Each structure stands twice: as C-alpha cells, then as structure tokens.
Amino acid sequence: MSPSHQAGQPACGIGWRHPHYGELLESLPGLDFIEVHSENFFAEGGAALAVLRQAREHYPVSLHGVGLALGSACGIDAWHLDQLARLVERIEPVRVSDHACFARGAMAGRELHAADLLPVALNNAALDVMCANVQRVQERLKRPLLVENLSAYLHFNSSDRDETAFLRELVRRTGCGLLVDVNNIYVNALNERIAGSDADPVKSCLRWLDQIPPGCVGELHLAGHCDAGDIVIDDHGSRVCADVWQVYRHAQQRFGGVPALVEWDTGIPPLPVLLEEAASARNVTTPVQQEVSA
Q: Which tens digit of pLDDT belongs to each residue from 119-167?
C-alpha cells in the first residue's frame, strides 16, 4: 500500500492518467487509492497492463469505466463485459463503476458506439433497460457496480421523474451502489440557471444530495468545469471551485465519509497539483469523518 495509507482514515485518491504513470510509481505519494479508466487496460498483456499491475502493488485501484453503456436498449456488449471481467480478476479493484448513460445503438442493421456519455430518458422504459443491464454486469462480475450520475446537456420530453428518483429506483431494484459526481450536479444546476431557472445552484445541489439515501453511495467524484458563457461544460480541466467544495462537504456529511476522488482529464497539470487537490479533499473529509465517528 502507499506510504501513508492507514485503516480508518478518509480515503482520498486521484485519477491516474498516462502523463503521471512514471512519476507516481517513482515517488509513491501518500494516496489512499488511484482510479483508472478500465478500457485503457483491456489489451492482453503489454505495457499498459504491466504498469497497472505495478501500481496495484502499492495502491488500491478503483476501476472506472466509460464504455459499458448501461442505458443502451441493445444491451451490454458481450466482448466489452468479458474484458472488464478479466481485468477485475487480474487487478482485484476496490470498486468498479460506470455511468448512467447510453452510448450504443443500432442503425441500418449495424451496432454503433457514440464514444460519449449520452443521457437517457428518466422514465420506466429506460429504467427497465438500465436495471437489466446493471444486473447482467453484476452477475458477470460477481460484485455490486457503482453507477455515476451524468452531466447532461439535453433532456427528453418523455422523462416523467427527476434524476434522483430514477437513481433511487435503480438502486432498489438492482442492489447497485452510486458514484455521486458532485461537479456533475453543479454543472447541471449552472446550465439550468442559464436556461432560465431562478434557483440557486448550490442550494439545488444540496437538495439533490438530500434526495439520495445514505448507505448507497460508494464513492464521490470531484473535478473542475469550464464556463463558456452560454453553456457550462464538465471538462475536468481545472481545480475544484469553491461552490463544488461546499457541495462536497454536504455530501460527506450526508453520506458519512465515503471515498473521494479528484479527476483531471484535459490540460492535465503536474502531479503535485493533483496531490494538492486530493489533500484539500482530505482536509474537508477528515473533520466530517470525526463527526461521523463521534
């Protein structure tokens, strides 16, 4: 395990990306876990899998996927699921997660993958599809899956409930857990304000969190975003802003001190910047953990 890993301490980690592979393995900073994108390590053998195995000797690993397409009506891709199952057996991750989205579909008799995290309608039909897909993944992996809420830039007229009601029912029917991305909630709230809502974005986020029952959240994500004026984009390209830290603290108070991860995927900074963000997450989490333990 990493040099500072101690049982009972709040777990804070970073998304481990290619520019930091060598530096992290050489310096072994005090992180409680690292998270990688599962699909980057599907290849049989090779340098990528070797470096992940090396990291696994020092850190717990959380596998975070972007390609299962849990909301796709054409089901789960069997090859993709087989590769994920094999990676889980090899790495023995602390958590496995993916997104509440669809990405695969059929057109003119061909299956297509959008290579994006597309939102689903929030209704019974979409819920039935996602429940079936999540159950298939969990049965194959023989473990619960964490499903992450999206930053969504469009909504379907056929939706008949809000996102939290959809996710609560997904948890109830499948036994899966949730990975709550607090930056995604905030980005959605900012875009709703641009669209005309007069609701305070931070208060909207706190209400969102209060509608998720404690006990089903297995991990939190933190990241930066980009305000382009007419839209706010979840680009994972900057430090976590003050409002998102406020939402994150509320999340930790509500969910009882769960593992937290800092993501940074565009304009990736030097490793010490990511470590500073992880330290900030721990500084927020530690007093919350003490409150929970008291």
A: 999 999 999 999 999 999 999 999 999 999 999 998 899 999 999 999 9
Q: Compute the residue count for the chain.
A: 294
Structure tokens at 85: 């199952």
For 219-235, the DSSP string reads EEEE---EE-SS-EE--
Which DSSP helix (H) or strand (E) runs through 94? none
Residue 105 is classified by DSSP as: E
DSSP 45: S
What ranges in 75-123 are assigned the alpha helix state H?
A: 78-91
How many CA atoms within 13 Å lie on the side-chain side of 243?
A: 16
Quote the Cα angle for 256-150-194, to 5°: 105
Report CA 166 to chain centroid distance, whole Å: 17
Give the integer Cα–Cα distance in Å for 279 and 245.
12
Distance CA 192, CA 171 (A): 26
Q: List CB contacts of 198: < 8 A, sequence separation 6 or more.
A: none
Tokens 């706190």 correspond to what residue? 206
- Between CA 151 and CA 154 the distance in angstroms is 9
Stated as kind and residue range, the H or E segment containing 98 is strand 95-99
**CA 163: distance to chain centroid?**
16
198-215 per-position pLDDT tens digit: 999 999 999 999 999 999
What gap in Å lies between CA 184 and CA 244, rounded to an integer? Answer: 9
Task: Give pTM, 2 decimals.
Answer: 0.93
CA gyration radius for the chain?
Answer: 18
- Sequence-distant (6+) residues with CB within 8 A of 45 are none
